[in-house]
Fold each of these.
Amino acid sequence: MTYPFISRLVTVAALAGALASQAFAADGMIELQSQNGFQATRDKLIDTLKAKGMKIFTVVDHASGARSAGLKLRPTTVVIFGNPKVGTQLMQCAQTAGIDLPMKALIWEDAKGVVRLGYNDPAWMAARHHVDDCKIVTKMSRALGNFARAATTASR
């Protein structure tokens, strides 16, 4: 074994670790760590969505559902939201995208007490539905990233 080989191996391992910590995942869900508590992240997301003209269809409190069944679950909430002016454009490119709409954001507290926010990557959704050239996908990606960052960035 030579030193250049070890050097390359260390470089590859470091790159893999860096990629794993980014705000994206190969499985199609973009995940960000929040600098806020669970409730603040949830509230900031909902406030941001409303301020940007998104309709909040419903908020699903999975932890509450678990309690009603006599089970325990750390804070876990899904916010279901959208804007027909946006979602319709994606469905005009591929109607099957309707299965992934309206958009959803998952906010949860992990086993270490870290609050996270995740959402489906519109580019992944487009690939899933075999959409090659749909201009709204880039706009959706940018908007969702902005919403997520607004919710997960510490309040000043």
Amino acid sequence: MKRVKIKHHTAASIQVKDHSKPKLSAYEWVSDDQRHELSVKNNALTLPNETGKHVIEITADWPNGNASYTFVVEVE
């Protein structure tokens, strides 16, 4: 998976194309079976601050289903 390089203290905006309002959650995967919850407020995600690569998962839950998006960031 291609990584996105970011600076320390970076936040990301989460946008839903159809303008629906799913319940959003975000996690940093620290191992195959362990993850830490990240802060999501007003569709803004606070990304990790520690230098290195981080696997991030965003989940979106609607009344009729859900979706999960995963990406890698590298904090420089």
Amino acid sequence: MKEHSTIYIYPTDTVWGIGGSIYSESAFLQVMQIKKVQFPRPVSVLVSSLETLAQFVSLDDLPFSTEVLQKVFASECSLGVPLELLKQSVPTWIYQGSDSVLFRCLAYPWILQIVHDLGGAPIVTTSLNLTSDPPISDWEGAERFWQTYAADAKFIHKRECLQALPTFSPSGQASTIIFLKKAPAGCSGKQPCLQIVREGRFAAGIAELLLA
């Protein structure tokens, strides 16, 4: 796939994000530089549909239905999938030597447009902030960051979002992060073994969905 090195700044359901094509190491390194990250760290893969996710993960091998998965992603959740469940590899700079890849799924119109601009590539995504600061969740803060630290990036303006979704606003809360894990003793059958590494505002409901 053609490499697109353009950087984008965009709102998500939780906080503002910054990213580019998952196939562009240049985009990844630019994001790390903008955030002033001293040592590269794992980032997430943002897809715009479960159909795109299915290009990378065998959904039939997951211990829950696609209907449940859709509800999980609609609940401000990032899902860590073990590398052995990937049917298509992702670039190594995405997961930085870890044993899982984090996925998010959002179908906002501006996310669809970014994916289209990237030639269909998913987005390597992380929170918009300097590494020493909390993630940005407000429109004004995101615009200031763009103008100060990443003026060459393509910025998704408030008017674009509100024209598409008049009541849209990031929640301001970090997403729940849940990793699927290999089944240890005590986990059997199709019951998923989960590790919640960060609790967002819907963490309890997400765990209940996945374990139902």
